[in-house]
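Standup notes, protein team

Yesterday: finished cleaning the Enterococcus alcedinis set.
Today: Aminotransferase structure.
Blockers: none.

Input for Aminotransferase:
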Amino acid sequence: MKLSKRAQNLKPSVTLAASAKAKELKAQGLDILSVTLGEPDFSTPKNIQEAAIAAIQSGKASFYTPTAGIPELRQAIVEYIEKYYGLTYTPAQTLVTDGAKFALYALFQVILDEGDEVIIPVPYWVSYAEQVSLAGGTPIFVEGLEANQFKVTVDDLEHARTTKTQAVVLNTPSNPTGMIYTKDELQAIGEWAVAHDILIVADDIYGRLVYGDAEFTPIATISEAIRQQTMIINGVSKTYSMTGWRIGFAVGNIELIKAMTDIASQATSNPTAVSQYAAVEALTGPQDSVETMRQAFEERLNKLHALVVEIPGFTCAKPQGAFYLFPNVKEALDMCGYTDVTTFTDDLLNEAHVALVTGAGFGAPENIRISYASDWDTLEETVKRIKAFVEKKRQK
Ligand SMILES: *Cc1c(COP(=O)(O)O)cnc(C)c1O
């Protein structure tokens, strides 16, 4: 069978691939520790589960919903954005999607023509680049300095800008680095985007997972002009431990939202009905479980970061949000005779039975990503194994 060029050029998600490999080895009976996935290990809070069960039993979850989402959920999104961003939108400016991932997919489908460019700061969440390519666009990678927490500046962006630049993706708090752009940094980037009519794709999915005295400023809140230039992408997966339910949303320009809805109408019809009812409860119900989970992540971050920086050859600035550490392991690679981080992570899996994600997949060939959305025992043992592995390789 012939495969399209598009399919041939598509790279599967490195994080999902690493997690699948770990599961495969586990199934063979090996004692594999996996810190690959960006997926909270908590079960979905009880009140949300119960709302879903009630929706099933009432019969209302049996049917197709409007493509853009049930009216209750679109209204809930409006109220949520009002509460956490202080911004007023109408339900018509919202779209419920099959995960935030599909919101991004639909967005790139409606803004890009063949050859149009999207600026993606490096390191980046793996799907941005592939989704841009699938839409016929060209991802333009811009590297932030690791010394500046990998954050890009307006100078970096201006360097990459051409007449074909349609959008810039901003993910703060960032997956994979956990770093957060300050309000001033965002203001500068926002004004630059407004001046050049470049759409800001604001992936705010980790906005409520912020630690210590760090603060998350959604870029859309900085000024009215910036708000108009921004498509907010968010969802329930990370905040409410609802990855499997597949509910995300987009909020912004009404013409774009309408066009994205048309894409969804031909691609998916609607996000799963029962999940939409669950998401209404997530967004409008009690929020104390969010805080409980956030605190658990923060505690793990504090303990894990202290251990990871003790591994020979690892350096790691302390993240401020999300649930990843993204240590630079260049020195460890040198010490152990590796020239390539992916060989290092492959050997870690095969020899130390630790599955984590190579930074190469995020555009950062000196780094690895450790997700701390796992229980503490797993995390502690993971660090022990990595440390022992590096120490063993180093002596050779
Ligand atoms: C997890 C993640 C998403 C997508 O989440 P969904 O489960 O599809 O809602 C989007 N962006 C980033 C940066 C993520 O880490």
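Follow-up from PR in the comments: Residues 38, 99-101, 125, 171, 175, 203, 205, 235, 237-238, 243, 248 surround pyridoxal-5'-phosphate (CB under 6 Å).
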